[in-house]
């Protein structure tokens, strides 16, 4: 029985498995394989012809490589469509207020309307029996505290009027918010502070990277999964 030289088809299989084979290279390898196969068929020993099962196996391998390439092309197309859809979704958040990981609170003072503080939030993996919030100045001075009581698991947003517990307006500027969450047994729970930001722009993902949202000079850029709540 005549055996086929499998070096060409093995080259095709190994190249195809790395996803680094260009369309031109793949076509050249397939042509080489078919040329070799036809030559061997023409020159085979009539008394010892090529095994049909072996020829079928080799042809199946070459078709498998072609199928993988077509599948890769299809997947690349789907990925591009998903990236475009994600970018379009993110573009809908431009000029929207959101909560993202962070503990900054900005206070502005208007002579006519008084003090205004940006909203903030907390993210909990499990429900908390008691959540205490503390707002401090940049120097670490405590300007406001409050017991928020029970807070459900997930994301909750809160507002603060920019006033001390004594009812006095705090100076305009940046402050920090911190949470202490405990369960019914008084055990400390993991919590994550969230701060307010305004989405100002969108940067499309490229080469498999995530779409990024521009939150301005203070907060920089974040990915879609970092948006915890749209206000």
Automatic annotation (TrEMBL):
Pfam assignment, any one: FlgD
Q: Where is the FlgD Tudor-like domain?
A: 86-228
Q: Does the keyword Ligase apply?
A: no
**Keywords of this entry:** Bacterial flagellum biogenesis, Cell projection, Cilium, Flagellum
The record ties this protein, via InterPro entries, to: FlgD, FlgD/Vpr_Ig-like, FLgD_Tudor
> Transmembrane segments in this chain: where?
none
Which ranges carry the FlgD/Vpr Ig-like domain?
Answer: 118-184
Q: What does this protein do?
A: Required for flagellar hook formation. May act as a scaffolding protein.
Record family assignment: Belongs to the FlgD family.
Question: Protein name, please?
Answer: Basal-body rod modification protein FlgD
């Amino acid at each position: 029985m005549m055996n086929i030289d499998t070096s060409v088809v093995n080259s095709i299989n190994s190249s195809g498995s790395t996803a680094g084979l260009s369309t031109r290279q793949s076509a050249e390898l397939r042509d080489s394989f078919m040329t070799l196969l036809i030559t061997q068929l023409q020159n085979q020993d009539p008394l010892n012809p090529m095994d049909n099962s072996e020829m079928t196996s080799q042809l199946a391998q070459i078709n498998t490589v072609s199928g993988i390439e077509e599948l890769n092309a299809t997947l690349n197309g789907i990925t591009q469509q998903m990236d475009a859809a994600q970018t379009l979704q993110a573009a809908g958040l431009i000029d929207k207020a959101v909560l993202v990981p962070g503990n900054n609170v900005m206070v502005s003072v208007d002579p006519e309307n008084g003090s205004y503080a940006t909203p903030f939030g907390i993210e909990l993996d499990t429900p908390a029996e008691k959540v205490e919030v503390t707002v401090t100045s940049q120097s670490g001075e405590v300007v406001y505290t409050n017991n928020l009581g029970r807070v459900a698991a997930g994301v909750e947003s809160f507002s603060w009027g920019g006033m001390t517990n004594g009812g006095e307006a705090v100076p305009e500027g940046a402050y920090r918010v911190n949470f202490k969450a405990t369960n019914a047994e008084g055990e400390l729970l993991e919590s994550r502070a969230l701060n307010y930001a305004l989405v100002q722009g969108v940067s499309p993902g490229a080469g498999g990277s995530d779409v990024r949202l521009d939150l301005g000079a203070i907060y920089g850029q974040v990915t879609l999964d970092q948006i915890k709540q749209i206000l």
